[in-house]
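User: Can you predict the 3D structure of Right-handed parallel beta-helix repeat-containing protein? Sequence below.
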Amino acid sequence: MGTKWRHRALPAAPLTLVLLAAATGCDGGTPDARPKPTATPSASVARVCDKPGAGPAKAPAGAVTVDPAVAGDLAAKTRSNPPNTTFWLRPGKHRLAPDRYAQVVPKEGNTYLGAPGAVLDGHRTNQYAFGGTARDVTIRHLTVRGFVAPHDEGVVNHDSADGWVIEHSTIRDNSGAGLMAGARQQVRANCLRDNGQYGMNAYKADGPLEDLVVEGNEITGNNTGDWERRRPGCGCTGGVKFWAVDGADVRGNWVHDNRGTGLWADTNNNDFRIEGNVLEENDGAALIYETSYNAVVRDNTIRRNNWVEGRRYADRGDTFPFATVYISESGGEPRVRARTDRIEIHRNVLEDNWSGITLWENADRFCNSPANTSSGDCTLLVKDKDRCAQPAIATAPLYADCRWRTQRVDIHDNRFVLDKSVVDCTAMCDRMAVLANYGTYPDWSPYQGERVSEAITREQHNRWHDNTYVGPWKFTAHDPSRVLDAVQWQGPPYRQDAGSAFRAQGGG
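Assistant: Sure. Here are the predicted structure tokens for Right-handed parallel beta-helix repeat-containing protein:
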């Protein structure tokens, strides 16, 4: 969707998290007038921003002590010590040299530990806090704030080095992305808050970005720069944005009050497990999975998302069912190695969001098409996009392989609740959808007319079944004009939601 598009089982053991009952206090938001709920969240979530883990009060044996009274002490001591050194930052505000490119460039295996109250402050002068290409760097118990990374760049792990571990840290009030990601990176129990573009941007220019763990973090209030309005259609924001990540576990996070999308996987991501998260009160969708493959989305609590952006679409008369979980040109593909060969969305609770789940496939978006917004990228099944041209694209295998197809999506055993007195829905907030547009161009496209609409609706093994619906749900199939009630949705020709229960609001 964006204009900049910057791969198995994960080895790390689950982190033991301290989970506390959530309250509405940690808004982390920007000062615009967002609708706020009256209900108090009941699920347990990682309240990291209010109660960050305390670092060591004394320097560990063998550690190099860093003094906040000496500007640039951290960068200088990093340069003068060998790899695999541990640095302990005393309490106080640590500064770099007053140059925008001044930064800490770790050596392989370095560890940076913050004492209680240790802050690395960029003073709105330095662009980057930690950069370079050294592997296996660890940062714990440190607050990083006030850095001014440019658009599409990041403050911590600026160069997307591999094997970094960032834990129990607060990365907040920075421009750009608070955090970038490399392969085998572990991001645990951090507060990623109020950063200008992303909480984290998982993008590695020279790839591959494999085996990423994002666990037990609080991710809130990001995109303070409101970049989707400043650059309409940029697709360049989110609590976390993932680009071409192969193998990710995203679990146990509290992703809330971000301006825009909560979690957004965009362009040739594969093998995601998104589980046990609380995704709530994000202005846009809770989750977008776009032009990507093979994922499990389970056991998440998803509530009160998409109120701002959904209403914006509806108020301008847009009939597209812009949903809280948006699967766009993404599906299960057995030929792409992963822990699953489908997209399975199950055992989630979606409550009082602006609409539910939309499965979408743009008929005009494929490799080598002028309508492909993926900046020249092609699917994981075709290495040379120039092969996707007339006449070969009209026949197998390229007819299928040149498209990111929304296929093999299995949506089951979820609970969908909608109370319009809570959502204050004016229009279009009550949709579940599977659809495509009418294919139109270029003139050599083999996907013109209703071919893709027919395929996504009836031929590509997309199924809803054994779900529970509470409230006045409607269903869209084939194209935006076909709005169905539950009987029509379950009946021929669509035959969706076999074994599902439909109840009016207040019916249990």
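The first strand starts at residue 20 and ends at 21. Residues 1-42 have pLDDT under 50 and may be disordered.
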